[in-house]
Structure formats: structure tokens, C-alpha cells
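Predict structure. Chain length: 410.
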Amino acid sequence: MTGSNGRVLVSQQTLNRDEVVRDFLAGRLNRKEAAAALGKSERQVSRLVRRWKRKGILGLEHGLVGRAPVNRIGVELTERVIKLLLGKYTGFNLKHFHEQLLETERISGVSYPSIKRIARSAGIGRSKRRRGKIRKRRQRFSQAGYMLQMDGSKHFWWKGQERCLIAGIDDATSDVPYGEFFGTETLEGYMRVLRTIIEKKGIPRVLYVDRASWLGGLSDEEKSQFQRMCEELGVRLIYAGSAEAKGRVERLWGTLQDRLVSEFRLNEVNSIEKANEYFNKVFIPETWSKKFTVTPQSEGSLYRPRPAKQDLDQIFCLKFVRKIRKDHTLLFGNELYAITADLQHSIIRRQAEIRVYSDGLLRGYYGGLDLELKQQRDKSWSRFANPKSGVGLTTWLRVVGTDFLLHTEG
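Prediction complete.
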């Protein structure tokens, strides 16, 4: 794709593919690891390498980039399918319902997989239990920094108080770079832990998480805040289909719940502040790193270099899209904000980006320009109206009612 200035534009996915191909050709990844990083088969890795050698990075672009899918299902048809599922055909299994669409309703533009996707997105139906698959123990990746498993564990870590520990574990070494205790499992907690890991170690290539809503694992239609952050970091997200699939981090929780609870009791750790300090400064370096980590198969690290603090600030924030009103104001969080920046021309009806930073600061941008938002009302009856209110990011998500998704109109 060519931009207005004549430059060739490629997607972030293509840049990630290019990096994996280069690592493969340099011997830093074997074919199996490259296939896992790309989400493709080993044969497809060979094809991508041949295309890369012929055309460079442009050979890695998908052939359908920029084209609308020919089989896209329209909004009206999707709504009609949901209405039939909830009304006339309530209680029908999805296969039976699909047959009725073809034979009775004469609707042939929706395939059976599309019916399943539409029903799942609408929360309709439940798949039957299948026989368990034969599972084999997966081998560790060969180098540190390639894949990081992240998860949260709710537990009574000290007497009378259930708290959630969010941490990451390196797949190759079982190293735990950082973990933190929170009141509950939230997007804000995952953001803080991932950012701290990046500041300490660098950016991992792959992040393995469960299908929690705040991580984007339940949304097939719209990108989540966490998915957007990982995309900007160049991190590939993999969602686990079951607890057994993320066995490395599940075994971590088993060990911690057995040992850490006892050590907390022995050392009179009974608050989040004390628990965070003991976990990261005492338990991890003195117990976990010495007894439970392993030496990777290959030397070196695949962590990418740590970005600058200001760059991380622009990634680890919440981003929302709002349309600029006719009087050059924006409505966000049920409050009105005026654009006070010195504009060269009108930007009404254009899409502005609202960013909410970790300290609660709210700012608006259009094409890289800071819109310098100012709250319109003198008396703030809502503590969420002030751009510098300092409320948590999870609270902001609840106020604007976005269910952790990125692009919303208001």
C-alpha cells in the first residue's frame, strides 16, 4: 500500500513477520519456533522465506490487504439471524437452525461457521462436551524472552483477605520477571505488570494469556485495549483454550500457593504493599530463581530493547475514538470538553482520539495534534469529569461503558 507522500506502508503484522523471518535466517529461531511465532505451519515458513528473498518485506504482506471480504455478512442480515435464533427458532441447535435458514427461510448467504460465530458473539447456545483430546507435554522454547505466559491467581494469600496476584513467567527458563498483588483481576493490573516486565527485561515476542474479556479473548469483532497495546508493542497474543494449555503458569500458582502463603504467615506479611515487596525482593530472587528456574537450550535473549518511558506512556494508556461536534467540543464520560488548541482550519465531524493515562490524566489528539481539552462545566458534579481526576483506568472504562473495547462512538 502506498501513502499520500509516496512512501510504501506496511502493517504491524508484516513488520512482526519480517522480524521473525530475519531471526529464522540468522539462526536465532528454528523452523518450529518460527512457525509458532507466525501462527503458521513449518511449510508456510518456507514459503514466506522464499517470498521475502524475492520481494523483501513486501513479500510478507497478505495478498488481500486493503480489500473488503467478498463473503462479509451485513449488519441487517446478522441482526435478522439473531432475531430468528432468539424468536422463531428458540431451542434449535445451530446445525438444525442452519438447515431451517436454507430450507424454510431461503437464506443462503450465511454459512454454518458464520452461524456459530454470530451465535457465540450474541451469547446464544452452548457447545456440547466433547471427548478429551490426547494431550502431549509441549517442549519449552529454546531462548529466553521468546514467550511469556501471564495470568492472575485469586487466593487467600494471607489470613482473611482474598487478593489477586498477576505475574508473568518465561516459557524457556521459568524465570518470573515481576508480579504484583491487586484487589481483583483487572485490565489495569495486567497493564502495570506487563509494563514493569518490559522496563526490567524488554519486550517479549509472544504473550500467552487466557480468554478474559479485558484481554480481548471473548471479542471476535472489535479490538480490545490490551490487544491494541500488544499490537503497538509488536507482541503476538496467543489465547489459551484451557487451564491445562497454560500449564507453566498454572504450576507456578500451585507452588506459590503452597510456599508463599506459609512464608507470608511466618514473616507477618498481611497487606498488598508488604506482599509486593516480599514477593519481588525476597521470594523471587532468593527462592524461586535459585530452585525453580532452568537453563535455556540456547544462550542469549530474544527480548526486544526497552522503549523510552515516554513511548511506553503513549502505549500503556486507554484510547477511545470520539467524533468532534459542530461547536468543536467532545463528549466523553458523560462530560463535555472544549477544544482550546490553536487550529488552522475546522475539524468538525472528524474522529479524535481520547487518551486516558495511568495517572488519570485525559488528553485529546487529532492527527498528532494535542487538542488541549478543557472541561466546560465549572462545577464538577462527577469526579470523573476532571481530566486530572486521578481515578484508575478500570474505573474510566466502567464510566464510559466500553467493556474494554477500543473504538466507541459517543
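Summary: The mean pLDDT is 81.
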